[in-house]
Design goal:
The structure holds 2 protein chains of 2 kinds.
Chain A (H helix, E strand, L loop, with lengths): L1 H26 L4 E11 L6 H20 L3 E3 L2 E11 L4 H13 L5 E3 L4 H13 L4 E3 L15 E3 L9 H10 L4 E7 L2 H16 L3 E8 L7 H10 L3 E5 L2 H13 L6 E4 L18 E5 L15 H12 L5 H20 L4 H10 L1 E4 L2 E4 L16 E8 L2 E8 L11
Chain B lengths: L1 H31 L6 H18 L7 H21 L7 H23 L13 E3 L2 E3 L1 H23 L1 H11 L1 H6 L4 H24 L9 H15 L4 H18 L8 H15 L11
Antiparallel strand pairs in B: 1-2
Helix pairs in contact in B: 1-5, 1-8, 1-9, 1-10, 2-3, 2-4, 2-8, 2-9, 3-8, 5-6, 6-8, 9-10, 9-11
Classes of the chains: A alpha/beta, B mainly alpha.
Amino acid sequence: MRSTAAHMSLLLGGLLALAVAATMAGAAPALAQETLTIGFTASQTGKLNNDSTAQMRGFALWRDEVNAAGGIKAGGKQYKVNFATYDDESQNTRVQQLYTRIIVQDKAQFLFSPYSSGLVATAAIVSEQYGKIMLTTGGAEEKPYRLGNKYLFQIYSPADQYLAGALLALKEKNPQPKIAFVYEDDPFSKAVAQAVRAQAKKDGMNLSLDESYAGSTTDFGPIINKVVADKADALLGGGHYADGATLARQLHDQKAGLKWVTLLVAPDSPNFATLGDAAVGISVPSQWEPQVSYKPDFGPTAAEFTKRFSDQYKIGPSYHAAGGYAAGMILQHAIEQAGSVEPAKVADALNKMDVTTMFGRTKFATDPKEHGLQIGHEMVLAQWQKKNGVLVKEVIWPKAAKTADILY
Amino acid sequence: MIAILASVVDGVLIGAVYGLAAMGLTLIWGVMNVINLAHGAITVFGMFGLYFVATALGLPAYSAVPIAILCGFVVGVALYWIAVHRIIGQPELMSLLATFAVNMVLIGVGTALWTTSPFNVPVTLPGVTWEGYTFTGTHIMAAVLAGVIAGLLYLFLHHTRTGKAIRAVASNREAADLAGIPTRQILSMAFGLGVALACVSGTLIATMFPFTMLSGEAYQLKSFVVTVLGGLGNPAGALLGGVALGLIEGIATPFMPVSWIPIIEFGLFVLCLMAFPRGIFALSRA
């Protein structure tokens, strides 16, 4: 009897130990959980608000998807993504203060850039000072990459490519157009302007008007009168959303009589459609459009991304949103390839990267004289057209990517 | 030549609105020797007034004009008693500081409520096209309304008892007091009128251009230039000064980049101060 009871006790104890061990095994995570902090500022107020909000939504959608999937997996750990973000009020002085705070106080491990070339240039000074990797999206000006940086990585195609497609498309319709070039007085637009002058000269095209305006301009009447006096066929230029949308509206109200208008940035926003008839025919150089058909090496296709973004935010994505999302994917891929969040290893992975995502090809220049400049990505030209009474944005250039004919 | 004429016409149209904006500033200065540094912020509140009338209430855009005048007057009287009344007769620095403080409060409250993002009220009116140049209906309407309001102000100041009292106080406050005019109430009404003019000019500007909470600064600077051109304390001169400034902008634009126009404007400001310290259209004052 005693030995039977002892056997039973032993058996029960063993079963109990087995149960506890099984429970502990089931509860223990496969990978250690950590948090990865990515810092950036967004222009939640001020004149860059419209475009910056789209970019921030791209970042946020990527973060939500990555965290829902358990986080970024690297080096036997899983990193949940956390943002440290502030409103830069579209001001350089705030960017300078806030990026220092993000790095020093919030201890962000990686950075995304603010929106717009001017603010990116300011943030880049701070990020390089602290040796922090920053993926720049929303900034096309090339100058920051030619100052000897080590940790900047540009997602967008550089500014000199912005209006190249527009000039080629225009030349096809009118080999000798009279072009009025009217652009915002800011780093990005001036970088685009420099490239336009060079290309127009090379192609024998006449820039009959070449004038900049202050970013705070709201009355474009005097400039439009000059365009009319010039009898220009085409107008190229603009800057960002606020001034671009106002210029488009006033061109329409004042019946400027132009056959071709290409404006930077503003017409890419879905909000541009609220201009109604003033939007028809306006074209925009675009870093990305929902209709692109890249075959991604990882991540969603353009169509899948568009659906997810539209479902979340009830509005279609502009290229600013796609750029934000792509920045997140590229950083994630670099960390996964590096197997670590150590800056040197991640930077190495970024430098070696040559991949295609829903955003297109991404490859960074590694020459120290232009480190981080985007050398893989290509731009398209989109135009607002009316289809069955509804305003839609169609890709009109390059021909290989077009979804509609040019409206001229 | 046609291009210059078109630019001049455009300049005159917008200049009338500049003049209306400056009339409020110069009226307050003329009556009570107060430089209202809250002028720009008040102009912006007039812009937001249009936005809410047209967008939130869904009313016709130009119905915001009488609302802006009425609300601007009430707010102006309140501001007078809160911030200005006690510094009347004090050194001018006190009035600058008091109105600057009001300006900062208004901008702070406005930014907290509406941020500094751009707002736009799409107002469409048929324009006039001539030789390829189009003068938009909103510009024409704004200039016409500016003229009408200026005319009504003139009639008020010269043909009503209260208006004459305001002119009497502006001319000699002590004598007006002795004549039995309730000068404190008259000063508050004059301030209210000045604020109403700033407010309605903002409403008219918003029918033409987009705006942000910080847009008032540019119009305040133009108002200072116009006030100097038109003569301090001379509302009719302010309207003429505004038209003159618009004319200068219109004439200069075809010949130089638009980015040079502010340099021309403020260069003119300095030259006028040197040659005519009391303003080109200044009237003599007792």
